[in-house]
Amino acid sequence: MRVSVPTNKVDVLRECDIIEEVLRIYGYNNVEIPTDIKSSLTYKQKPDTEKIQNLISDYLVSNGFNEIMNNSLTKTSYYENNKDFPFEKSVGILNALSKDLGLMRQTLLYGGLETISYNINRKVNNIKVFEFGNCYSKNLNQFEDENIRKRYNEEKHLCIFTTGANFKETWQKKEEETNFFDLKNILMNIFKKLRINPSQYSLEETSVEYMQGLQYVNRDSKKVILSFGKINQKIRKEFDIKQDIYFADFNWDLVVKALQNAKEIKYEEISKFPEVRRDLALVIDDNVSFAEIENLAYQTEKKFLKKNITLFDVYKGEKLPQGKKQYALSFTLQDTEKTLNDKQIESIMNKLLKSFEDKLGAKLR
User: pTM of the entire structure?
Assistant: First the structure.
């Protein structure tokens, strides 16, 4: 069939436009509705990255954070003489409009600091923000490879910033400055929401100059999944920021990869038998962390030790030898089949104490 289109029908250009005109004249209501429906099913590989990102975004927003979005193009000056993010690894822009838009960002850090500086200059001092975004760098080891994709790295990150007061002053409570442990609590809750056990990673001091803090490192690949801490004064001074800033950086690609091994949620009946709490005061070396004690405890006693070991006091002072500190810890024990007796409880606590003494050099105070 051949048709000619009137000159006044300027919107009829394609075959589908002609079909639409025929249906309009014939009448859509005269078209019979089929008894069966045909559709193509789509399958999305798990985990659903968008769903996971929205889950964490909702959590952060519900805790007083605001989401920010910064330009992927950034200032050249940020990466000159930068040991943490070398200029040589920066991806340059051909025919850049200016040096302010001369490079692709290697980190979300500087964009976030620009946002904080902008707000502080306008008397907004209490800031809690986060950003999801891609970071770019050259893969110098394979930069001569024929496959262009291997020459460059593109990673998705989640960065979190807190500065100023943690909450507004009320008649019941005074303002308190946000601190390292406020941020760490948020980060541990993110791990918990994603069902990722942070104990599977080694906890180390950060190896970067722009921040003093800690980082979680994959024991096999040695890649950092999370680093967090306090931004140093030198960086803050470059952005004319005087107040303390606490910063966290998730490698979101590694987070999503870790979700593939996350444990499924299991439901179990609440035990009818009572829990028992026992406390220990341990004198340990300064370099021993609570995470090491917690992991060792769970390795030593897997059956009766519940998942709520608590550090409720830390003491450092003249009464202790130099290089030592005291941790006061509570342990919750429970048997799901019967009530624990004193003999069993004493045996478990002695086993824990011996393990702490042998592997961490701890002493009972």
Answer: 0.76
